[in-house]
Amino acid sequence: MIAFEEFSRRVAAVRAQIDAAARAAGRDPACVQLQPVTKNHPADAAIFAARLGLASIGENRVQEAAEKRLQCPHPIRWELIGHLQSNKAKLAVETFDRIQSVDSIKLAGLLNRAAESLGKVLPVLLQINAGQDPAKFGAEPADAPALLEAALATPHLRVEGLMTIAPLSEDPAVAVRTFQNLRAIRDDLSGRFGTPLPELSMGMSGDFAAAIAAGSTLVRIGTALYGAREV
Ligand SMILES: *Cc1c(COP(=O)(O)O)cnc(C)c1O
Looking at ligand 1, which residue's alpha carbon is closest to its atom 10? Predict the structure, then answer.
């Protein structure tokens, strides 16, 4: 793990790049949140982010996050950004402040029931496979309206927006198209259902500038902040 001072420098550098990308797109930099991704790093990664006053962190495994959260008493929001299996729905609702990876009607139903049993309303994002990548999770764009309709009908989920992951590609145009597609899907759904869906979670270390140009409100950054993950 890197030292706190190094982390702090990297956050400042990435933040400056985010701000520049936002300004270049004619957007207010304050409307793009930097979410450190702490998966595969020790609990210190989350503690560092909390010490810097960052709003939230992203984790992609339920069990790993549940264990780390116990070691990080500082106030910061924990968000699930990885695929969620049905049998982990209950623990996920107990562990996370928001789940970004809701990709099926079945999963929305399970999370709704778990949130109800815990007496809470769970903020969620719907994960859409906006890059039509066979290797990625996420609802197909054609299934997005039915998923949104189902999620909006669940009293214990609050749908705040959409999330996507761009396909791995040598060609930067692939990520650009993916992000523009998610933005278009959001605009379409938002109009059709009369609901704002303000959060657009898209962009990672290698492609966040393109995501911000397309309207990202939250970039999920791991490698550029913590270095390579030890797997
Ligand atoms: C790991 C991960 C990230 C961060 O990726 P980096 O390239 O390390 O910045 C972002 N989003 C999701 C869903 C991830 O699993």
Answer: 220
Residue 133's pLDDT band (cuts 50, 70, 90):
confident
Q: Ligand 1 centroid vs 185 CA: distance in angstroms?
A: 22
State yes or no: pLDDT of 231 exceeds 60.
Answer: no
What is the distance in A from the centroid of ligand 1 to the CA of 199? Answer: 17
The reply to whether 97 falls in a domain is yes
**Residue-by-residue DSSP string for 64-115:** HHHHHHHT--S--EEEE-S---GGGHHHHHHH-SEEEEE-SHHHHHHHHHHH
Q: How many domains does the chain have?
A: 1
pTM: 0.97
Which residue has its alpha carbon closest to ligand 1 atom 13? 81
